[in-house]
Amino acid sequence: MQRRIILLVSCLVSCFSLNLTGCHREQETVKRTLGFDEFRPEYNRYIQNWIHAQKAALQKEEAHLNELIATAGEEQKVLLEGQLASVHKDSEKMDFRLGLGDYLKIGNPSEVPTDLVWQNGQDQPEIGDPRAIKGGVFRKEMSTFPPTLRPFGDNSNNGFRSDIYDDINLDLVHYHPETMAIIPGIAKEWAMSQDGRTIYFHIDPDARYSNGKKVRALDYLITIYVNVSDNVSNPFYKQAYREDYAQFAAYGDDTLAISLPEAKYYAALFACEELAPSEPDFYSEYGPDYSERYQWRFPPTTGAYEVKPEGIVKGASITQTRVKDWWAKDKKFYRYRFNPDKIVNTVVRDSSKAFELFRAGEIDTFPLTLPQYWYEKSEMPPVYNGYIERVTYYKRFPKVPRGLYLNVRKAPLDNKDVRIGINYAMNWQKVIDVIFRGDFQRLNSFFEGFEGLSDSSITARPYSVMDARNSFASAGYTQQGSDGILKKPDGTRLEVSLTYPSAPEVDRMMSILREDAKACGLDLKLDGLEATVVYKKEMQKQHQMALGAWNFTPPMPDPYQYLHSSTALDEKGNPKPQTNNVFGWARPDTDRISLNVRTARTLEELRSSVQQIQHIVHDEGLFVPGYTLDYGRMGFWRWIKWPDCENTRFCPPIVSDPRDPYVFWIDEKVQEETQAARRSGKTFPESTRVIDAYRTPSPATPAQP
């Protein structure tokens, strides 16, 4: 779209009669440019200045620590020397970054080292089933209509994001969802520098956007530009790109090098995490009005599905269309995946309504993990008649941290004893027994379930009236009111607002927690809101306590974005909006360990740091673990087919939902057969299966990257 500026042409004096007779206007077309060429040198200077400022601050801190060490006692001296070592480490990283030169570099292909050892991952097993058929329409529900289709900027980190971006886009490389080894994505091959800090990627010469244009190395530098410029509100990524990456270098069209401040475990994966290329022509109108101008535009994608303008029905549905002649359709690891021609996502705000649509055959699949769906609602004629099939499948995926997130920036949650008391006052086991009929298990800790990394010795605090009241008493709540709620001698009541996405099942859960918390002297003020409103409230850090569940993904956790002080507070010490640190937690030791997780070179270093973080979250009572399970249950109409081959049994084991890796397909002949059977009354054998191929835990040690 071109911007048109109306210019008044020179008018003769005679034009200025009462009605401006004879005056005329003409239009001159002014095309907005991308702005990357102007941005790059400015941003490179900004990064250089920022590094110099960090270096100066570190030198000042080093001098201060040395002064303290000189007069410190032995115990304090050990702590200070640990801080000093961290400062030295950070200082060395800054020196390394200064030595690289431009942060956004356009180099010559001759600069790429000739002694690199290139890998391509082709020795890994296939993903999916060779029997998979292309075609058909997959129909699914979504709970709310997304506030935007933009991949970045305000409100882009919404619940629908994974459906159109995270689960669809191809990164430069990926991890294999069974072996955890690295496999190609947009990069055909990759290599590591001798110091382990720079990863080189050869872009697959076949890689194309959905508009047919070739993917170039420079497009990744443009991604940095559109994410960090002043045209967009994107604080998390602005900080992440500035601090977590040392350089992005394009060497011709086909080679990209990404340097990290220091070497780390899983470096290749970390380097390209959620780093999608940006097609330059699409962003030719990028500017200060980005948020409004691009609000409902879907960018050209390298993934299998795109969202066309006609696929958007505001407030009702979004249709994803399989990219015609998708460039990766015949590539290993992708050729048996992303099979439906279209995916229709229909807004169904109530889960009961969604189930009725599934029962009627208007939605193709439905999660049946909740007991009321598995034991009661799915006991219905479409199941008895064999039209709908049911399956219990086991998986090996990091535990979803479903529980209560406490904002320490809001009183009384700034008091550790209050937080510990709340942990004891939440009767999650009763929720599991009543709502989930004992099928689920209690979640024990934050970052639980990362194979070979998590500390399985940590257990969640059980419901205990005595322990809760003792903790509350330590916080000064020593008196009890006539309503049973504890209070301080000055009359301050022990009450906390609990924000959560309102739905019938969730409302029942919260009511149970509220009633049993009252027995502990705590008044939970239930704040049930629409899911989108809850999300916005948390991102603005306006909640006290909130029910939440982040979607952690393998192979390792990233505590930095949830617990580092830079994601909690701004430069003035105020709560920082639009970050994932909904705890508001900020403490030097947590900062250091969070960074250690990101920069560990060995598995042991990584494991130690992850477990230290887990203990901090547990010991400080920042998170009240809720419930979890190591299996899922799914219902699907019989025309939805799933893999059953040597490499993939139903779905890969390391997934959160069997639909996420898109290994299923639609058999349109079976669909026609089933619809005809429904009309005629013909039935098929009832099918309820258990897929336990991945029930045995995987080895304790992840694959070497």
Quick synopsis:
The chain is α+β, with helices and mostly antiparallel strands and 705 residues long. It is globular, with a radius of gyration of 28 Å.
In words, what does this structure look like?
There is one protein chain. This protein has 705 residues and is of the alpha+beta class. Among the domains are: 36-101; 364-396 and 630-699, no CATH class; 403-628, Dipeptide-binding Protein, Domain 3 (Dipeptide-binding Protein, domain 3), CATH 3.10.105.10. Helices cover 31% and strands 18% of the residues. α1 (36-71) runs antiparallel to α2 and α17 runs antiparallel to α18. The longest helix has 36 residues, at 36-71.
